[in-house]
Design the sequence.
């Protein structure tokens, strides 16, 4: 992890501030067992506190159970910060956000600055649910300098947590592996902030995927941002399809369930690309069927198993293709809801120092104790 730059803005935390090729500082913060508990929520708390009256905070998230952060947003609102919070109203654990919603909905809370999203579903066969969810994790701040955090972390903990049942279901995200990347490219931050405010102002409906807003691509100096749901092809799958034989692709995934994702990774291996997959240990999130298919193909597959059963909630891909490197990260999972229904964000970046930071995190995960490795076997032609 690189040292903070002398000219870079400092936060009351120990996260890396990485200088990109354009000499603009980029913040990257990894949470995990090797960090203090609540490290990522403390990063968000520090940024809330740093926004003065007249500034702006715009959040979009899936789970929100952290009462301390909820109260911090209320206090920011009261001191004259323009706050918007857009929150999934019925996540997979449907009552998980209720307490924070109650806090933010009080007469002295956020008022109209809180928007609860419940996207209608479409008819599904018995036992199936085809209901889109707001799965994005986006946190935008106007001050001290504009920054937009994208990643895998939503503030789903509440320390001390008085509801162990929810904690067991969600996993301890305040101590498990997660990431927040603070983008500071002015073009990216401005358009991500606009995206957050549009979701807040006009909640998406079932036909949202056909809108220009859903299918827009935001291009920065060394990063491109995509949104789901969309009518155009899956941008990560499309990008991986352009990787050349001889390349190396490393996938870190908390969820792999859809057949399409498995086919994509196996196809890469069959085209002479080294494919390594490091997945979460939970069979619900990464199924035994997925493991068997990878073990029967030329894909190196491992399951991360933390000694304390902490979750591995990261979602990123590292691509080394000749002299080019790319980092892909965001909120997206390798599941059917994420591919076709949910509202997601993905960033594809060619920044070499960002790649190095994620590659170092790969090594941390790979070298963790109790990492179960499945030896790959080459499929016959």
Sequence:
């Amino acid at each position: 992890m690189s040292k903070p730059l002398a000219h870079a803005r400092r936060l009351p935390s120990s996260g890396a501030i990485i200088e990109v090729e354009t000499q603009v500082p980029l913040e990257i913060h990894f949470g995990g067992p090797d960090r203090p508990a609540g490290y990522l929520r403390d990063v968000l708390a520090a940024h809330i506190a740093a926004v003065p009256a007249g500034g702006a905070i715009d959040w979009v998230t899936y789970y929100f159970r952290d009462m301390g952060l909820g109260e911090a947003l209320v206090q920011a609102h009261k001191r004259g910060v323009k706050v918007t919070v857009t929150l999934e109203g019925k996540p997979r654990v449907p009552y998980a956000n209720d307490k924070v919603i109650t806090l933010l909905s009080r007469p002295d809370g956020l008022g109209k600055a809180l928007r609860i999203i419940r996207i209608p579903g479409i008819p599904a066969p018995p036992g199936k649910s085809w209901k889109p969810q707001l799965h994005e994790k986006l946190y935008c701040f106007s001050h001290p300098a504009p920054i937009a955090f994208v990643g895998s972390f939503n503030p789903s903990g509440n320390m001390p947590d008085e509801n162990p049942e929810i904690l067991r279901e969600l996993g301890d995200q305040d101590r498990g592996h997660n990431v927040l990347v603070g983008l500071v490219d002015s073009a990216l931050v401005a358009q991500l902030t606009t995206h957050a405010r549009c979701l807040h102002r006009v909640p998406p409906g079932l036909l949202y995927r056909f809108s220009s807003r859903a299918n827009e691509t935001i291009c920065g100096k060394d990063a491109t941002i995509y949104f789901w749901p969309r009518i155009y092809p899956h941008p990560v799958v499309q990008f991986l399809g352009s990787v050349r034989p001889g390349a190396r692709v490393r996938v870190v995934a908390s969820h792999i369930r859809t057949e399409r994702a498995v086919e994509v990774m196996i196809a890469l291996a069959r085209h002479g690309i080294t494919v390594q997959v490091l997945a979460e240990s939970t069979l619900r999130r990464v199924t035994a069927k997925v493991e068997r298919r990878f073990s029967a193909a030329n894909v190196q597959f491992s399951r991360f198993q933390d000694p304390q059963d902490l979750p591995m909630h990261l979602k990123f891909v590292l691509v080394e293709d000749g002299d080019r490197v790319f980092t892909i990260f965001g909120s997206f999972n390798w599941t059917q809801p994420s591919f076709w229904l949910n509202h997601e964000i993905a960033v594809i970046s060619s920044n070499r120092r960002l790649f190095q930071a994620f590659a170092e995190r790969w090594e941390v995960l790979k070298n963790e104790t109790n990492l179960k490795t499945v030896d790959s076997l080459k499929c016959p032609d």
The longest strand covers residues 25-31.
